[in-house]
């Protein structure tokens, strides 16, 4: 309800356009506004997302450069499209608390000092929360931690020491296929919370090839994919809710 209240305070919704392949996410944002904003007018302002060099050897440097370009874009949008008395909003898909640049970019805009503004972050349902709910599992086992990481780090480092439950995000190369323990389970989901949602679960050794095939087909069909998964090593309380 806090989010619905915030939607009804916004005069302008800024939508970062990531190209025709990801029109679904833009349309979902529009559908949310049409459904929950009542008895007031608002504007949708669209702007193309700066290109990011995903193949750069210096990964952190490429991300920093992309964030600087986004900060410049956000500053321009706020300056040109938002009057002093108006409220603007960015609708972040997933959750800005997990692997999202929106907060960092807004902070860069504020630090630049060209556009004075104040902002608030309204918590939403993260993709990780939705994944656990759709598979009807808890992210943690009794008395045990959960670790959130990226596919890149899972490939390079494997399971963290002393942790049997790992949530993996931003995995473009199916790092779960490198998990050696035959008993490790995976709870995988793509497009979670949309009409295109796909869920697969089971022992990694038994379903890894299925997930790879389903993921490849879905990406080819839609032109993009957003997925995440929980890996759970055997030997502990399953922690089901």
SSE inventory with pairings:
Elements: H1 2-7, E1 12-17, H2 23-36, E2 43-48, H3 59-81, E3 88-90, H4 102-112, H5 127-135, E4 146-150, H6 151-157, E5 165-169, E6 185-190, E7 198-203, H7 204-222, E8 227-232
Parallel strand pairs: 1-2, 1-3, 4-5
Antiparallel strand pairs: 5-8, 6-7, 6-8
Brief digest:
By secondary structure, the chain is of the alpha/beta class.
Can you walk through the features of this model?
The protein has 2 domains: 2-112, Cobalt-precorrin-4 Transmethylase, domain 1; 127-232, Tetrapyrrole methylase, C-terminal domain (Methyltransferase, Cobalt-precorrin-4 Transmethylase, Domain 2, 2-Layer Sandwich), CATH 3.30.950.10. The model is unreliable at 237-241 (pLDDT under 50). The strands form 2 sheets. A 5-stranded mixed beta sheet has the order 4-5-8-6-7, with helices on both faces. It is globular, with a radius of gyration of 20 Å. Helix 3 crosses helix 4 (102-112). It is α/β, with parallel strands linked by helices and 241 residues long. It is built from 7 helices and 8 strands. Helix 2 links the parallel strand 1 (12-17) and strand 2. It has helices at 2-7, 23-36, 59-81, 102-112, 127-135, 151-157, 204-222, and strands spanning 12-17, 43-48, 88-90, 146-150, 165-169, 185-190, 198-203, 227-232.
């Amino acid at each position: 309800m806090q989010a619905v209240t915030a939607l009804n305070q916004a005069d302008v919704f800024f939508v970062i356009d990531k190209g025709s392949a990801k029109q679904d996410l833009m349309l979902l944002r529009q559908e949310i506004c049409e459904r929950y904003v009542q008895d007031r007018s608002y504007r949708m302002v669209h702007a193309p997302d700066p290109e990011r060099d995903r193949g750069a050897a210096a990964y952190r440097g490429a991300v920093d450069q992309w964030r600087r370009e986004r900060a410049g874009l956000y500053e321009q949008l706020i300056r040109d499209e938002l009057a002093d008395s108006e409220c603007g909003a960015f609708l972040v898909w997933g959750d800005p608390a997990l692997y999202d640049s929106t907060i960092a970019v807004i902070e860069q805009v504020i630090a630049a000092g060209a556009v004075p503004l104040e902002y608030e972050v309204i918590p939403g349902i993260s993709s990780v929360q939705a994944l656990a709910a759709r598979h009807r599992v808890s992210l943690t086992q009794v008395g045990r931690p959960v670790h959130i990481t990226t596919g890149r780090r899972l490939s390079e480092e494997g399971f963290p020491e002393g942790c049997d439950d790992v949530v993996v995000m931003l995995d473009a190369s199916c790092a779960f296929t490198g998990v050696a323990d035959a008993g490790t389970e995976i709870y995988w989901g793509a497009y979670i919370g949309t009409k295109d949602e796909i869920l697969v679960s089971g022992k990694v050794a038994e379903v890894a090839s299925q997930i790879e095939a389903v993921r490849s087909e879905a990406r080819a069909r839609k032109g993009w994919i957003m997925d995440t998964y929980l890996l759970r090593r055997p030997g502990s309380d399953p922690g089901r809710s």
